[in-house]
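Look over this today:
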Amino acid sequence: MELFKSETNVDFMAWRKLSLTLSAVFCVLAAAIIFVRGLDYGLDFEGGAMIEVKYQTPAEIADVRSALDGAGFEGAVVQSLGVPTDYAIRIKPHVEDASDASKAAVESKAATDKIATEVQAALSKTRTDVKVTRSDFVGPSVGEELREQGLVAVLFVILGIMVYLWLRFEWRFAVAAVASEIHDTLITVGIFALTAREFDLPALAAVLSVVGYSINDKVVVFDRVREIFRSSRKGEPYEILNRSINSTMSRTIMTGLTTGLAVGTLYFVGGPALENFGLIMLIGIFVGTLSSIFFANPILLWLGVSKQDLMPKTKEDPELAARP
């Protein structure tokens, strides 16, 4: 199945200066958003208590927030667990001015149980049919460690991709791939930061998935570039890169659409636990698809890729000698 005819020859490379300029602007804006506004780290990274409560009959989320605010839990995050009777309450710690001994006391299951009891009492003032069903705690030190390990994981993935492509193709492909990965990841995280959603472990998993999805798309295009370079002794890099984009266009768009349908389901009907994962994947698929068309190959052309970089070097090579 093809969305575009095999003879389609859209001159995408003619837009390379505009596309690279826009990409650079978007990357700068995304970096500014991340560093100035920052990510709203969730309980997984900031630490704190997560309390799950259950009502006998449906309750309004606004009433739950109001009861918590009245009891001094300002800033508590209340999320529905899919039904109007079950809610998750996230309460971040406020221990900046505490002594080391106080911090150690806060980072304990006993402190979480105390918070759960206080939440139960606060909600029971307006509704007596509420019950705490679960209480968990994540210490701030654990959250900081998770943030650092998450960043290290992303860097190792990108470095591994660069080494693989350097060995599999040629150094220019490795540089173009890493530039594309940084481009896609930065813009995706920047857009997510604008939504003011909590950045939690599922969100981090989605970022790593975006890195993997994006590079898979680029490798398909790069493989076609190499194939066309090696199958023809004539043809300028500009023309060959254009042919590569056009010949993989159907595959790029169809892969994006089908993957988007799958992760879109997670976002729209997966519930609070999967919303962030689905949203980041949707953003990443859209950005990655555009970069496969308008960013990766223009970077290759800018780096000066040519058929001499991929062709066998000597006429005695059987593969080269067999070609017309």
Observations:
- The first strand starts at residue 40 and ends at 41.
- Confidence is low (pLDDT under 50) at residues 95-107.
- The chain has two domains: 12-41+143-321, 48-138.
